Amino acid sequence: MSKLWAGRTSGEVSSIADDFNSSIRFDCKLYKQDITGSMAHAAMLGAQGIISQAEAGQLIDGLQGILSDLESGALEFDFGCEDIHMFVEQVLTQRLGDVGKKLHTARSRNDQVALDLRMYLKDQIDEITALVKDVLGAIVAQAENNKGVIMPGYTHLQRAQPILFSHHLMAYAMMLLRDLDRLGDCRKRMNVCPIGSCALAGTTYPTDRRFEARKLGFDDIARNSIDGVSDRDFCVELMSAVSILMMHLIILWASWEFKFIELSDAYTTGSSIMPQKKNPDMAELVRGKTGRVYGDLMGLLTTLKGLPLAYNKDMQEDKEAVFDAVDTVKMCLKVFAPMLSTMTVKPETMKKAAQGGFINATDLADYLVKKGMPFRSAYKISGQIVARCIADGCVLETLPLETYRSYSELFDNDLYHDIDLTACVEKRISEGGTSAASVDAQIAYVKEQLGGGNV
Predict the structure, then answer these.
(1) How far apart are CA 184 and CA 448, in angstroms?
(2) Is 367 helix (H, G, I), strand (E, B) or coil?
């Protein structure tokens, strides 16, 4: 098949080199954006008098026909073409003759692919954003349905202080809100139109770049044509944002050692040899696929490092990496939201773990401080009492008052109220803390951020 770029060379490439060079196997994903962008380009060429309005109309109608045929299945991709751009132009020329050959006036595949990729990834950001909001909705619903459930909070994966389970959930909600911010910021910087940059230096034709940008929903145009075709920051930025998002998708509490929650059978599997097993395979796969997304990011960063301006064929490697990262995070989010929504919370298990971890020891020390004892002295006595409980096989709440008083005369009956787990939680009244009122405020904030409570 003769190449559209044949002229300076024969256009005859060895079959091995042709296959190595081809990108249509993966950039066919961009067909809708390529055709939509081409329709806007044809409209601009006609409006500027670079081609006639009649020719522009023919091109637009022909492109619409190709789009319709691809989406209906009447037309299939020709994987013998080098890329999606050449496929569309080839079919258009077959259908319209010489008029089809006028479409590529005043543009290059360099600015064309940069345009297609930005348009495609803007759409993908919108989809990812909606999926993140679904996960946030599931988190908020579980937080609201489990108010008052106490669990041990952890540092170093050691039981530390009592918190509300809803407080723990809202920590993930805050992470995901930041993810939404990053996606929004990335989309804003991505929403710059490179078309009209051509190969690297612009064009001699009297084009109207802003006409095309407006027609395609861009906020601005690339202000430098070299940067317009060579910039892939928007790919790296999106892959960085989804890498951080993947880092936030984790479920730990379903293991038997915790048993704080139980995942629905619909999101677990069994063992082929151990009949008692209920494995959180979906959650583990999300964790595993995080490494895959990180790898996509590092691969593209390495590909782009030190490239000379402007366009280089190395940049063809951007698409498979960013497509894989986007597809992976979407797949993970789609399973994560219903997995959270259908999980069962185990309040009694959490409470038992909280009681057995001496996580009210800080409150015990604070009790003595309020009675006038210096904190360091109170800290030491509290540690000694915890050691005593461990030796006696009891917890702070069941240790007799006379035993407490053997360590300090400051202890009195009001001690047991102060070290009650519910009281420990409710006393943490600082903004952002674990008290019920504070968690309610956090839930309200997340709802507001998602649009007036419409999660």
Answers:
(1) 17
(2) helix
DSSP H helical segments within 275-433, as ranges? 281-304, 317-341, 347-356, 361-370, 375-392, 401-405, 415-418, 421-426
State how far Cα 204 lies from the chain centre.
42
What type of residue is 286?
A: V
Q: How far apart are CA 442 and CA 431, in angstroms?
A: 9
Catalytic positions, please?
Answer: 156, 271
Q: What is the DSSP letter of 269?
A: B
Question: pLDDT digits over 253-310, tens only?
Answer: 777 778 899 989 898 887 778 777 778 888 889 999 999 999 999 999 999 999 999 9
Give the whole-angstrom CA distance, residue 133 versus residue 122. Answer: 17
Q: CA 36: distance to chain centroid? A: 26
With bands split at pLDDT 50, 70 and 90, how would you rate the model's confidence at 6?
Answer: low
Q: What is the pLDDT of residue 455?
A: 43
Q: What angle do CA 213, 219, 220 make, to 5 degrees?
A: 65
Place of tokens 């996509």: 296
Q: In whole numbers, what is the pLDDT of the chain averaged over residues?
A: 93
Residues 404 and 145: beta-carbon distance below 8 Å: no
State how far the Cα of 87 lies from the Cα of 1, in Å rounded to an integer.
12
> Quick check: pTM over 0.70?
yes
Q: Are 166 and 439 in contact (CB under 8 A)?
A: yes
Cα distances from 172 to residues 105, 166, 307, in angstroms, run 50, 10, 38
* β partners of residue 435: none
For residue 380 the two structure tokens come to 């030491």
Distance, in Å, from the CA atom of 330 to the CA atom of 273, rounded to the nearest integer, reads 32
Q: Which helix (H) or strand (E) holds 164?
A: strand 158-164
Contact present, 170 and 143 (Cβ < 8 Å): yes
- How confident is the model over 169-224, as pLDDT tens digits? 999 999 999 999 999 999 999 999 999 999 999 999 999 999 999 999 999 999 99
